[in-house]
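Hi Prof. W.,

I finally got the PASTA domain-containing protein prediction working! I wasn't sure whether to trim anything, so I left the full sequence exactly as given:
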Amino acid sequence: MTTSRMDELVAGLARAHDDRIAGPDAPGAQALLAAITAEPRGTARRRRRFGRFTVGVVAATTVAAGAFVALDAGGPGPVRGYANAAVDIRRTDDTYKVHVKNVYADQRQFREAFARLGLDVTLSILPVSPGRERKIIRVGGGPHTPTDGVTGGVRIATVLDCPPGRGTACPLTVELSGEAVRRQATEIVIGRTARPGEIYHDQNPGAGDNPPSLRLTGRTVAEALARLRARNMTAAYLLGRFNQDGSGSSYTPPSGWRPEGDRRVAGAWMRSSDSVTLLVVPRKNDPGPDPSRPAPF
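And this is what came out:
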């Protein structure tokens, strides 16, 4: 509170005559007492043993991004924590605890937070198929399947599940540690609940039906499309071959390409809540692979 505001409150009390003073419960006295007790106590703050907090609010043109808080360890040295509207990151020794507050936030806010801590980490929170929400989908360029919790020199603790009864209304939490986190670029993909129609980013191409209830493999493309239309679903296509052990390869055909109706479906899997990807084995006159085409998911 400014000095002029305090003076106004004092002056307001001074205008009362002695015979009209109602005591400490008078409204003016109560207002002055509240103002005084609300003032920051500078000397007490300097004696605190906790770290200093630096708080900044983004400019009015970007208020939607929210406020940010940077935590300094109490003197020269690296920033120990950072938070914005999307994520809160805290460092303890060589471990970074990441609380994702809004899984639907602008992905750039996640990268900004890591950059504030001097880390080259790209965290992506992407829609996935049911059952894989709040799971680590990929680390770097491949799937996250470490046996000891370490992938590419980065140790990643299991993403904590939401407590019972909370649904998804709690922070998604993951811990990162390891020398590689501080010394190299790291990419982490974590799943979130997909909105209706959003493409799943954890599709797993292969032979056969996934889930088995699709019952499309072995049918002609025309038969498969008829079954999908009856369920108010659409189809996308992938060209490739896969073996039952999962080995194989596939590629995306040009946009607008459609296989002939008499060709057989070699595999099918859920692409979104209302669409399915159909795998078709390439023929001689089919378009070939083109690295410039976007991935199917």
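The radius of gyration is 29 Å. Does that look reasonable to you?

Thanks,
D.
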